[in-house]
């Protein structure tokens, strides 16, 4: 039966993919092509408990990577099981709030929205075009990372700027990580044994990129990331919220160019910038444990900014079902979770230290004490959401 979904997530120099059963989430095959457009381009395929890595031949681009994948699928009689391809597309603007069957009009819209996501949407479009060549008759569906946040009210997504910037140029908060927040909140609803539409949850997706989202009665009502993935809490290499006047000070007083400032705020700040060591939380935690004061400071700022964001989002609720930690750091760093929870006692979050130590490396469960507001660690699975929503969209079209 042809009901598997091929999920494709394109970056500017990478291509992540998985072949999944959309009904039960069974992972059949997965892999990553990285360092595309360089001499070091390599593709890795994990299938049947084996991992194969192969260097790619020129021109080392997304099309070559997808063709390699197609050849592998064909060789193992898997290509004919692909009923559709689901693409992660970072920015859908205000236009797309649902999974969308891709046609020429949709591709044109994704290209137009590149001005809001210049690093991501062009790469997503490259993946779509490459997949269309390789799977000429197979439906392609776009799953937009911003879609889940399109339920935010104006008070949450508008900035305190002259209104015409929103009207004429779409300058507003859009939010990201929507697929991840949706998945973990749906899992929390299952734990609570309640319909998602009745759940009030704060979700913290913590990785190299971080975002906090308030989900009220199953819908996103506020999120920390904004027009771009630079707003919000401190991240791996991104500063998160700063006084906008810092930009003018760097340019006017210290002589930096706007390009310099863009690089500083996006690639040289956050955990990397403060610690002066790394953007990897594990490296920083190890250094902090050995007495490195800059590493300790980075972790303190990181955890405080996240706790402050969680606390501020509580204003959306009269009751709260719980808090979720997800993403690479959220799922695995017991220290970061502990530091954050220790600053949220006013919201009745009290860490169960043994449970927190246990909940790592794919495990799911509550790390708060019995008489506390629940705090779950829930591993995210964005690929399954993309596969499931692609499958559902396909059934709607038929």
Write a structural description:
- This protein is an alpha/beta fold and 398 residues long.
- It has helices at residues 62-75, 104-112, 121-134, 154-157, 164-169, 178-192, 245-253, 258-267, 270-275, 281-289, 293-313, 327-332, 334-341, 353-358, 382-397, and strands at 4-10, 15-20, 27-34, 42-47, 50-55, 82-89, 100-101, 140-144, 200-206, 210-216, 219-223, 322-326, 365-366, 375-377.
- An 8-stranded mixed β-sheet has the order 5-4-3-2-1-6-8-7, sandwiched between helices.
- Strand 2 (15-20) and strand 3 (27-34) form a beta hairpin.
- Helix 10 packs across helix 11.
- The longest helix has 21 residues, at 293-313.
Helix content: 25-40%
State the helix count: 15
- Tell me the β content: 15-25%
Query: What about the largest sheet?
Result: 8 strands, mixed
Question: What are the low-pLDDT stretches, counting only 5+ consecutive residues below 50?
Answer: none
Task: Give the termini separation.
Answer: 16 Å
Give Rg in angstroms: 21 Å
Tell me the number of strands.
14
Strand and helix order: EEEEEHEEHHEHHHEEEHHHHHEHHHEEH
What structural class is derived from the secondary structure elements?
alpha/beta
Quote the average pLDDT.
94
Shape: globular
Strand order within the widest sheet? 5-4-3-2-1-6-8-7
